[in-house]
Design brief:
heterodimer, A: mainly alpha, Helix Hairpins, 3 helices, 80% helix, 0% strand, B: mainly alpha, two-stranded antiparallel ribbon, 2 strands, 3% strand
Chain lengths: 99, 640
């Protein structure tokens, strides 16, 4: 596959992720979108390796996977907590930060 | 060998004073005897010095008091003939009066304090008389004045006594101011305040042609003497001083303190120029005659005797004015005895009858024979009956006056007639005649106790015979004592005769006024006579004059100053306080302004916060949207 289109793919995935995060009301949906953004970034890193030969990029992708895992744990913990407190997981129904 | 002893003379009564002031209440009845014993011991020392003084030796004790540059500040005590004479007077008469007071003040609650004051007085009087240096003299002078004040107002519960004490102190203070200025002037011009050097100072000043300065100094010293010896115009305190207990009147205001002025003039006679001597003569003569006329009109026993004292002191001053120092001192000597005796006799009467007014007294010779007898002796001595003490001293003064001017002699004879008139008026009204209705039936007069009669008898002996030391019969040893040669030899019969005539006239006058009640003046002269009588009876309105022309203006002035103080000075202080108030009010207003500013600022910020709060909706998506948009914008801008 040509590198340009692969880069385009990772950028498109990223944008999809951003869009999804902004639009979806469900908290887990937002989390999924964030995962998508992270993976898009990882794909971008790997492609960098394919294009320019930076070996460190592949290692960085592994970092991103580990990071994603941790971040998913923390995010889920927050969502569970929120669901207990606000009795809902829809972000647009929660205005605890209003001030 | 003898010399250190003289320091005991004033010290013994001083120690008695200290003992009585601190432990008097515990000593109680013994206080009087302690005081008398101290004074008698001083008297013993004085008499012990007699042989040395008679031989003409001067005994002195000196110690350095102040050495500033010139070592002339040496004060000390000197006993020469003049001071020895005064010492004899103070100790002898003083002891007699102290013993008398033990009886007189028996029932007084402040018994021991009286004797404490009496001892202090004696100590200071003795110090005054022996002082060698003017500073010591002045210190003792003031002390004597203090004791006079304390003793006059001894019964201070009586407002009259308190006022009298104040009046005495203030009047003599005025004289003392003159004395002080005179002393300062002397110190400044002559540089020397030792009394022994006065003759030398006089010579020096006359040589330098500064006779006017001498006159000035001597006149200022005369001020002090006039105040203390109650000469006109400073005589007003002595009659009022009769408010004090009678022994006080006898000792202080008859025999000793008032004699201090005469002593001062006698001591400082070298400083007196002929001009100042004329002033002394004039004042003395005026006092002698005027006081005599007032004494004729008084109705209170003690007032009569007070004016009599004034009159006799005037006579002594007259003698000094004539330069006859020995005659004056001799008269002081005899006067102390008979005047003290007169006062003690009066005190005896007052003690027995509790009356002082002549209207309530009479016929006391029957109940008080001893008092009447001693009173008669004293009266005869004062009037100048031949061979009694008063005669010898008065004779000398009359002789000196006759030698100076015949008119002066005539005036003094008139004074002598008045003297015998008033004193015999007192004697006749008080002791002879019919007894009046008793004011209180329970009070019947009785003779005084022995403790009072014995001293009176002693003084009577003195009043009768003590004059012999100055008489030609004994060769006038007094004059040699005083360092002067005897004035004349033998007796001048014309003077003796005329003084006896004056005495007789006076007694006849008194007899007539007291018993016969015959009108003496022809009808045409009676209104004038009555007016003169009233003038004398009102004491020539001197007190009223002083009140109107000196005291009231002074009080008005002090009131004006008080008003000034209240309005101007206090007003200024109040205004300052009000200014402080106004300043603090202003400050409060400024503070409030500042508060408003600060609060306003806080409110503004809160308002801004409230206004901007709508941004925080709490919706997460909104925040994310803002973040994403800003990243995009920023990256575009950075790329540009």
């Amino acid at each position: 596959m040509p590198a340009q289109s692969l880069l385009l793919l990772s950028h498109a995935l990223f944008c999809l992720g951003v869009f999804g995060m902004l639009v979806r009301p469900h908290a887990i949906g937002m989390l999924l979108s964030i995962e998508l953004m992270l993976n898009a970034a990882a794909l971008n890193f790997v492609l960098w390796n394919r294009l320019f030969g930076h070996v460190q990029a592949q290692a960085f992708a592994l970092f991103i996977i580990a990071l994603a895992a941790c971040e998913a744990v923390v995010g889920l913990a927050i969502i569970i907590r929120l669901s207990r407190m606000a009795k809902t997981v829809f972000a647009d129904q929660v205005t605890l930060l209003k001030g | 060998m003898m010399r250190p002893f003289i320091i005991w003379i004033p010290t013994l009564p001083l120690l008695a004073f200290l003992a009585l002031i601190f432990w008097g209440r515990r000593i109680g009845r013994l206080s009087g005897w302690l005081s008398a014993a101290a004074l008698a011991a001083s008297g013993a020392v004085v008499w012990g010095l007699a042989p040395a003084v008679a031989r003409g030796r001067h005994l002195a004790v000196r110690w350095p008091w102040l050495s500033v540059g010139d070592p002339r500040g040496v004060v000390g005590f000197l006993v020469d003939g003049l001071s020895w004479l005064m010492l004899v007077v103070v100790t002898t008469v003083g002891t007699a009066i102290t013993v008398y007071s033990i009886g007189y003040m028996r029932d007084d609650p402040r018994f021991s304090r009286f004797f404490a004051y009496l001892s202090l007085f004696c100590a200071s009087m003795l110090g005054l008389v022996m002082a060698d240096h003017f500073v010591l003299l002045y210190a003792c002078w003031e002390l004597v004045g203090l004791c006079s004040y304390l003793l006059i107002s001894f019964w201070f519960e009586k407002p009259a006594a308190a006022a009298a004490g104040r009046k005495a102190f203030l009047t003599t203070r005025l004289g003392d101011a003159g004395l002080l200025i005179g002393l300062l002037l002397l110190a400044w011009t002559a540089g020397d305040l030792q009394m022994g050097h006065l003759a030398a100072i006089r010579e020096q000043f006359l040589l330098d042609g500064r006779a006017a300065l001498l006159t000035g100094i001597s006149l200022l010293l005369l001020c002090g003497a006039a105040g203390k010896s109650a000469q006109i115009p400073l005589h007003v305190w002595l009659p009022d001083a009769m408010e004090g207990p009678t022994p006080v009147s006898a000792l202080i205001h008859a025999a000793t303190m008032v004699a201090a002025g005469v002593y001062l003039v006698a001591r400082t006679l070298p400083l007196f120029t002929p001009q100042s001597l004329q002033v002394v003569l004039a004042i003395g003569l005026l006092t002698h005659l005027l006081a005599g006329t007032v004494a004729l009109t008084m109705t209170d026993i003690k007032r009569i005797l007070a004016y009599s004292t004034l009159s006799q002191l005037g006579l002594m001053m007259t003698a000094l004015g004539l330069g006859a120092m020995s005659a004056a001192m001799f008269h002081l000597f005899t006067h102390a005895f008979f005047k003290a005796l007169l006062f003690l006799g009066a005190g005896s009467v007052i003690h027995a009858t509790h009356q002082q007014e002549l209207a309530h007294l009479g016929g006391l010779r029957r109940q008080m024979p001893w008092t009447a007898l001693v009173f008669l002796i004293a009266a005869l001595s004062m009037s100048g009956l031949v061979s009694l003490s008063g005669f010898w001293s008065k004779d000398l003064i009359l002789l000196a006056a006759g030698q100076a001017h015949a008119g002066l002699l005539v005036l003094l004879l008139v004074g002598a007639a008045m003297t015998s008139a008033y004193v015999f008026r007192l004697y006749f009204r008080c002791f002879l005649g019919a007894a009046p209705q008793p004011v209180h039936p329970s009070h019947h007069a009785h003779e005084s106790p022995a403790v009072m009669v014995v001293p009176m008898a002693g003084l009577a002996m003195g009043a009768a015979f003590v004059g012999l030391v100055g008489s030609p019969w004994l060769g006038q040893p007094l004059f040699r004592l005083l360092g002067e040669s005897p004035g004349h030899e033998g007796i001048d019969l014309s003077v003796v005769g005329s003084s006896t005539v004056a005495l007789a006239v006076g007694i006849w006058l008194a007899w007539t006024v007291a018993f016969q009640r015959r009108r003496l003046l022809p009808v045409s002269l009676r209104p004038l006579g009555r007016r003169l009588y009233t003038l004398a009876a009102r004491k020539y309105y001197v007190d009223e004059g002083y009140d109107r022309w000196l005291i009231q203006p002074f009080l008005r002035m002090t009131e004006a100053w008080a008003r000034f103080d209240l309005r101007v000075i206090d007003g200024a202080v109040n205004r300052a306080g009000q200014a402080g108030w106004a300043l603090s009010w202003l400050q409060e207003r400024c503070d409030r302004l500042v508060d408003r500013l600060v609060n306003g600022l806080a409110r503004a910020i809160r308002g801004m916060g409230a206004a901007l709060r709508w941004i925080q909706t709490g919706v997460v998506h909104q925040y994310l949207l803002v973040a994403v948009v800003s990243v995009i914008v920023l990256s575009v801008l950075v790329h540009r």
